[in-house]
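Narrative of activities, Objective 1.

The group set out to show that a structural description can be obtained from nothing but a protein's sequence at a throughput compatible with the screening campaign. Below is one input-output pair from the validation batch, recorded exactly as produced.
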Amino acid sequence: MVKTAELFPEPPSQLRAPGLRNLLAFVGPGLIIASVTIGSGELVWASRSGAVFGYRVLWCFLLAGLFKAVQVYSAARHITLTGEHPMVSWKALPGPPLWFPLVIALPTLLVMPIAFSSISEILGGYVRELTGLSNSDNPVGVFGGSEFWDNVWGGVVLTVCFILAISSSLDTLERISAVVLGLIVLCAAVSVIVCRPDVIAVLSGLLTPIVPEYDPWVRETYPNTFAGRSPWLEIALYLSAVGGGTYDYIGYVGMIRAKGWGLAGEEAVSRAQLDQLDEGQVARARIWTRAAMLDTGISFASVIMVTLLFAVLGSLLLHPEHRIPDNETLLTEQETFLTHLHPHLRWLYRGGVFLAFIGTLYGAFELYRYTVVESARAILPRWTQDKHIPVWRTATVAYCYGGGLIMIWLPKGIAGDVLSRMTFGAVIGGATLCGLWCFAMLWTDYVRLPASLRMSKPLQISTLIAGVAMTALGTQTLWVYFS
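Output recorded for this entry:
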């Protein structure tokens, strides 16, 4: 048993003397969050926001990224200082047993198959459109022609990623993806500079949080999508797209165990043990929290930057031409972002799309293994001993694959199209749960940690503001969606 006086190991020198080289040494699980969201988040929904609203909702991506960074860091900090996942700590919240872990976990399990089916169908439809293979409009059974073949190619995409997830680490693919996506981001940045955006309009969109009405042409040109769709539902989709949602963050915090920052990966310590820490141990503990801060800070800064880049490009190149990435064109309209510079860059874009979406699905399989295990540890502790973990992880991959495949093949009249499914997932697992998470972390920080290790006042205030803002936005969206 570890003595109380030596709970926290000596932090590495990189954390004691931060520098650019040292900072990058502590970027790990946060990059998984970034890679999982770059496919559908930046390439699709950020671009769509610019096409629909122009610069007017840039604030959504900036504030959502900042708020979620605070949300994630508060939880990463907690496991670093206590060795206990917040899902377990939340069992002690006042009220019926397990009520808050269930509030977080159940919508998470519900949303997982939606994410896998939607992302697979988006890429599957893109494959069908680019190759022209089976590009038929003839009905097949209960499916329309294009719907049937979108399902076929979506199922193929999901199956390939499932096989990769259970048989390969995809290290080579990840390296290639990083290079290709880096080139896409570089070209997109050059494209923004060449297009010379209206800086005043960009700043206004970043700093003025409003939910505008659609321009008249939006409903006139796309009546099937926007005729009865509230702008609040679009905003909910964008809020969820930036950096993911609670279903991602439960897993992210669990992945920190493997990094061994502070007490992460060790047996959880009690409040009484933490109360007995001397000044030296408190100083060590606070230094260890820098690792979590660096990881979340760098990853979310990257997400915000890339998201805003594609939102501005949507405003510059799609909005003036009244072109919106919609159910049938969620990936094709954005080719303009690169072909604006040179026609041959379309091949860079197309290759990047495939790598980004395959990386997204693979990363989601890996991340959600941790999400389910950490949720089960809080709710079913007897069934989550070390010998049970491989079973839970295998069951998670099977559930995500099987559930995603079922969602793909359910007729649109039952399951809805990609847009409606992702909107439902955003409403159920989006801003509201993220806001409640922040409130729960404030309570847990006060109850679980001694005063010497609690959040600083600026962090407490930031967490409170994030909780209030995301809960309010999410509640408004829920009201609009269900009414």
